[in-house]
TrEMBL record:
Its cofactor is FAD. Belongs to the acyl-CoA dehydrogenase family. This is Acyl-CoA dehydrogenase. GO terms for cellular component: plasma membrane.
Amino acid sequence: MKLEVPVNDSLTAGAGTSLTEGPPAGPRALRVPGDGPARARYVEDLLGDPFDAGNPHGQQALLAADERREVPSATEELLHRFGLAAEFVPRDLGGRLTGVEGLAQVLRPVFRRDVALGFGAGMTALFAASVVWTAGDERQRRDTALRLLGGGRFTILHREFAHANAILRGEYTARGAPGGGYVVDGRKEVVINADRADVFVSYVRTAPGDGPDSHSVFLLDTGRLPARAVRRLPRARTHGMRGAHYAGLELTHCPVPADALVGRQGEGVSLALRTFQVSRALVSGGALVGGMDSALRYAVRAAGESRRGLVLHGRRGRVLAGVFADLLACDSLAVAGLRLLDLAPEHALVPSAAVKYAVSALLHEDLDELAAVLGARGYERGPTYGGFQKLVRDLPVAGLGHAGTADTQAVLVPHLRTLAHTARSGEPGHEAPAALFTPGAEEAALDFRRLDAEPRDPHNGCDGL
């Protein structure tokens, strides 16, 4: 069954007919019908016209919450009643998640309006839960699904990287406890939703050194940890994503049960390499492309309302056309990366890093170009253009800035020689799946367990990319 609903597809469009008089009732929220595109239209209609001053989920309300450094509570509640968490739970566990291409479509209406809300109220939960979908046992998978579907909040505690920014700095260590289990100590000061999360999916050091078996992943349920050992640190002030709750978490001699371990001990680095493929693809195809779509619309509106109007062959017209072409290219690249995860996830390690690197670099340059087109309007705080300056602050945080670039380079660089040799030699290999580049291809389902931490031989993989 597909939903037939009117779509507010343009940020500058007038208000369309509402799908409902208000948010759907809670008991019905988890039974929203339709595939990914239909649910995306549903979310678009629920959020309404961004420029309607009376819309509680419009730009005026979202920007006011950002100025107060608060989550837009009405919109977060609307997404909760829609059942957004079900989008992050595989269908065989009671959720709606099949392929990540469809998930990116559902998330884009949120990211087009508020990047911080898309992370804080949504995608961070999948980044955390994807580790459980990839390597968790049946009990962990079932309990995680039930907790998410019941309104529980998950977040992720990353391990520290060499090029760490504040979000990635700091880590936790674990040692064996007498009688079984572990004792965990450590501190991180900038973690999204650390002051609100019920469960922390945590990358914890369990061995010295920087080898591939240095870290393990633990599912830390605050309800199972002693209150004396857990301290939530004050909320951190950030320049971007001001409405998101970035805070800290300190664990002191914290006893952790043995069954909190996800996968095998020492598997943390491998799990990061596997699950980050999903994160990179969704950040590219959801947050970055969705956010830049809005940024371009602000610039088109500014050019059209200027004294000279929009001159297609003028300087600003050429900039807008160039950014639009880049956005289409990035959208196509991101969709291919998302589809590859759904169709052949074991081959997605290098392509997902390439997609994230290319999309981030290109759209970062384009954001600067659009700022020049908006001129002084790019600094306005009102509902008409205020969303642009918010995007300028939020989008770099979405890509983790320099740390995000270093992360993708760390995956790509070791394989450049092999990839270049394969391309130059012209030796035959297997073609990529035809559905990868077929518009309107039937949606496939991502099997997280097929994600691989090692790149496949280009001769035996998807060298059609």
